[in-house]
Amino acid sequence: MTPAVIQLAAEAAERQSAEVTEVGARIAWVVGLVVFIAFVYWLMRQGWKWRGALQNDLPELPATPDGLPAHRLALTGRYHGSTTAGQWLDRIVAHGLGIRSRVELTLTDAGIDVVRPGAGDFFVPAAQLRGARLDKGIAGKVLTEGGLLVVTWAHGDKLIDSGFRSDRAAEHAAWVEAINLMNPSITTEGAER
Asked: Does residue 107 sit in helix, strand or coil?
């Protein structure tokens, strides 16, 4: 072998052998990353609890009364949350209203029965309904235009928008019409924005 070939072989061997990574430093970085992620999660949880504490003036949600009249409409789908009316990013988390879940809605002449498996059920009396509209988003959920049924209702001294999405989105228009017809002071012009 010539000296040039030996030198090239030596250089190639040096390029291929990398330094061994220090295991202790790598473990320290992984532990640091895990602690950082846990800290961020803890901050998010504290923010959720703080928001709930700010909303503690909201009264308990009404329970479904016994002997409801026959239902006018029913749907199954998803409950996407509730916000302060007109402020689609101001999520309400008190009394479990911030928990997304499956939902079974039933509209009767007495009001809307909201059954949420895995979360708290509640009832919106007809006298508290203020209207319904089709919208595209509510606190953390944005869909196509008209993909969300938003029901506005009064609870205590607060107006609340609750967002629902039916498994069959074609049902939304019938719900908007039926809810708005329950309150003669609501016009269909003011129901959509």
From this structure: strand
